Amino acid sequence: MTHIAICTPEISYGDAVSSDVLGMFNILNEQNLKVGIFAENILIKDKTIKNIDFISDFIKYRKDLIIYHHSAGWFKGLNLLTSLDCKKIIKYHGVTPPDYFYGFSRDHVETCKGGIEQLNIIANLDLEMYLNDSRFDMVEMISKGAKASKCFIVPPFNNIGRLKGLKPDFFILEKYNGKEVNILSVGRVAPNKGFIELIDAFALYNKYFNKESRLIIVGDKHPRLSAYIDFLYDRVRYIGFDNSIVFTGKVNDEQLKSYFLIAKIFALTSHHEGFCLPLVEAMSMKIPVIAYGSTAVADTIGDGGIVWGDLDINLIASTINEVVTSEDVYFFLGEAGWRRYKNNFTNKIIKEIFLSVIGKYL
Amino acid sequence: MASPDDTKKYIEDLKKKIRREVKTSPSLSEDLPENNIYNYLNKAEQYARIGVDVPSFNRLSAPRRAAYRWATKFLFKVLKVITINQRQYNLSVLDTFRININDHNSLKLRSAAAKTQFDTRISELELNLKQQNIEICELKKVVDYLKYSLTQLGQKINDIYGNVFKGAEKVSRSELQNLAGEINHDLDSLYVFLEDNFRGSREEIKKRLHVYLPIIKKANIGLKNSPILDIGCGRGEWLELLGENNLNAKGLDLNKVMVKMCRELGLNVIESEALSFLKNLSDCSLGAVTGFHLIEHNGFEFLIKLLVEILRVLKPGGLVIFETPNPGNVLVGSCNFYIDPTHFKPLPSPLIKLVLESCGFNDVNIIYLHPYEDVFKIKNDYSETSKRFNDCFYGPQDYVAIGYKK
Questions:
Q1: A60 touches chain B (CB under 8 A)
Q2: Which CATH architecture has domain B200-404?
């Protein structure tokens, strides 16, 4: 029987790449295939996930298959990819350009630089197949040298089913579920996420349209990015919105669900996204989505929300107002987002795409 | 339900409406601090240029408009000459402001970045300082202990020499042997001290030894008729762990202090030399023989003799487990091995595998254990050099050799 190893540098809860890895594992397992997850940093207590050093005990024959998830520089993984004699498929999640991190975090610059350099190598290895989270990622993969005939779009598996079944955190519901309009954004606090523009847009909305509003930014605050985070805090203080803008830091799934439940609208002004799973999560919960359509964002939202081609804070503020004040618009966008999710991003649909694409190697 | 085309059209119409509203309303962003500065500059620029453009006078009749335009043009030409320097000055000041604001913004970002770099460096240095302080404290402890032990040893040797020279004829051979034995055992407490300081705490060692329990259980030994013998049992962590898992075990050690400590814990430990103890055992009487950090304390010839005896006393299916420092790790092979002055010689894993096989053990397996924590390794450098460096310096510090009797 063919052995399938899914490889990733790190596996943890609440991270989009890990959700995709676990989703793939479950789907392949359902097919009664011999599947294993191999990672270098394992932050999940699960005996089925093994250290990458043991992969050669599992992948022994040419007919065996590696599904390699690429999103950052990973020397060990690349080494294995080039040395093991078996079939190989890449799952590309996009690498953030290092330029965003210069001056803020040497580690992030190095990791992203490594990711880009290794993307160049991986794209030119002429492997069996290159699966990409989005059209944007696929175009990048082809531009780096991968054959277009071997490139496919397979959206990442998500955790939404589980999220919907979870009990929310009542403390959060009680704290924020008041008369204020909650504007939600989800994503790690990093320079590529464009939070400065979101904060400014919110400031305008709050000042001109609705004093009783709040911006909630849910996402991990990495200690190595403390200079950038301080910069954001300074900005918030400078414009005088300390009491209306909340940075939650890293949250668990129950807390994340609670923030989605209290959100009136989901706003995103990110400059770089390989797919952006939080958009799909918001759409699945019928929360109207508005965004700046950089990189893969427009593809992910499609006609499930309002996407602006330019990052004009006046437009973002006015759009928030339009959605919040008009019940028709609010419900229409909620439905549109939900349809977008239902027709394109349920795990069932992704499973069909995934199996039809990689079927011949199973 | 709306069709995809309807949805698209609805959203496009909505976007058009929002865009119209934004265009017709005054710029919302005027009041934001930076935008405010730019707005002031833009206004100032309009005034700085006044006098340059001739008004259109559209509301006037044609002949009057022509006359006014001619007069204004003339007036402006004159004014231009008079105010040319003032306008230049105004525009230059505005440009200077713009450059300063841009510089200020980029400096703000750069200073934030420099602060991160500075903070990172400071925390690295603080960490180094902390580690060095810990090392200094540990070394001070060792030096104090060694000073004390040396003084005591010197005193004892003087006493012994005194006794020997003063009344050698009165001291019997057996009494001399006893005295010599006492000298050897003077090092016992030093060894306990070394073990406490360098090997790790009792709980840590027990945690590390957990890895061997499945191997023992799989071999179905440790029963009454297949007991386990731990040679050089030291502080007895392994014996304790075996006992907790209802496995029958006995320990051997030459160190009087350690034997006493083990007995106080209720462990079955005998003070005896390993080879002579094994020689007194009958064939096929043990389930397993273990030795953690034992074989590096003796010479090669002793090791061979020991293995031959172990093979004899093991039951078929029984096994031997020897854990020892891994000289394949450069730090272990060149330095850490010698922290224990009772260590004899580092033993590379291929040699031990070969020796076990040559002595008649089967299915000999080497497992590498206890690599350094990630914090010590070079991170975020994906070069081959860093990888090799990490492997050589911070790879496994110990290994275990396991062999079975068929």
A1: no
A2: 3-Layer(aba) Sandwich (3.40)
